[in-house]
Amino acid sequence: QQLVRLAADKDALPRLLQELRTYDLLNTWVLESVITECSQRGDMEHLEQSVQLARAQGTELTSTALSALIRVTRTADDALSSFKDAVGQGPPDAVLVLALAEAAERFSDRAVADAVLQNLPANPTAALAVAVLRLCLPGAPLASQDEGMAAAKLYGKHFANVDLSQDLQLQRLVADVAIASSRTDVLEKLVRSLPDSTSRAALVKSYASDRRLDGAKRVFEACPEKDACLYNVLLSACTVGRDLASAEKLLSHASATGAVDVATYNTMIKAYLQLGDSRRARALVRTMRSAGMTPNCVTFNELLDAAAVKGGAAMWEVVDEMEACGLKPNNITCSILLKSVQQRSQPRDIERALKIVESVDVAMDEVLLSSICEACIRTNRSDLLARHLERQRSGKGVQVKAAHTYGSLIRSYGFLQDLDGVWATWREMKVQRIAPTCITLGCMVEAVTNNGEPEAGLQLIRQMLAHEETCSLVNAVIYCSVLKGFSHRKCFDQVWAVHDEMRANNMQYSVVTYNTLIDACARSGDMSRISLLLEQMSQEGIEPNVVTYSTIVKRYCLDNRIDKAFEVLEDMKRSADFT
Q1: What pTM did the predictor assign?
Q2: Three-class SS of residue 208?
Q3: Which residues of the chain carry a pLDDT beneath 50?
Q4: Minimal CB count within 10 Å: which of 96, 126, 368, 462?
């Protein structure tokens, strides 16, 4: 084989064939290697020469060589002709019929497909079973009008003992027909042919993913043995489908047969929590313990996620219980704790959360790093944020690979008024060849603008717009940061210049954009522009909100124009959103 491949690479196959024939070495197996190599390369000239040599010296070709000839045919008729020639040498084996089945699919030809069925061996291989059943898929030559009944018949007659575990699409084809026609026998044959519980669980899960809970149940019922893996997949399908009654019944059966594990209970606990029923979730934890199973981090993370909505004592109660069980918080635990910490949280909550983060005996990841940054910003803890950023900058932190994480770091440096850190992070992202997202760009523009450099923010926007691969990142929200920056610096001419630029670049305005412009009018005392802005809002179908009206009223009051303020209030009352 290696000699043939080398000769083909050197375009020396004719010479090799001649030499082999001279020394009477051109036997069946050599011809098989040559024909197979030529068919794989699409070398029809030398393939035909090899076939002619075989005929000239009366050498019978192997089924592998004959299969290779069928695979390079260019029409359905040629495929049938080659197959009939092969059959003339003796009964076709699975290898030869497989090549014909592939040709039937390639040419989508019914006559070739019928020839396959007529020549099926008594013990077909898995590869042949898959190839033949694929001929029954929609649009294929054996597809029937009775929604795949041909596949069910073929499977029941020829392939019931063949392992289809490597082709989920065909499993579904057979299972769908068996379920639709109430052929429980065919469905049971199918699941019994699958080699293990994992394969059966994958079939159940495929129905669950398609929101076909009834199909998932039918496959589950057809399984000869039901272990925790199978129960867990169906239990998850029931909970996703909000079929709590079936889920509870399934859990009861699993418990009675001993086919439960921690994941079984966790799935049901999650379902109760999603329905807001923490009482039943807690009760199930107690049932779990009485059954001799210890809750794991997943259990407590689900409870913690639900308790975090309430915050405070409820959240720390779960953490205390987790630690009492000898379990250490993991990254997910820390992320939940940090996301629960809000501006209204007690200082001790953020400090305890960060203390837990620092005690976790696993490597910090990007999600956790971002969660720490955002929690510190939300709670205005610049001292804690600075400490973690210093660790990150020292080289002992996380290796950042995601644009989202870079956005969090840029936002954090901006919060600390560290422009050097902001720009260093942006440059690092570019050096690492990590493409920014609109969120990353927004964080960058906001960071430099909020720190007194709206010109730098505007320049960055223009750089993005100048390149085809980044121009789509820019939107009105990002421009808004620049508008606010110039407005707060009382650079109102630049506000309106940026507004004109946004219009020229076809930015889609929102109520936030208009509120920013109206705020600039109020700050500058240029109330003459407000009527035009409100008219533009109306033309674009954007309704003013409380912020819009409040900004206008406040300015009129400052100008002692109480009559105009009351007019705005009357307009506000007439608005449908404020009735």
Answers
A1: 0.62
A2: helix
A3: 579
A4: 462
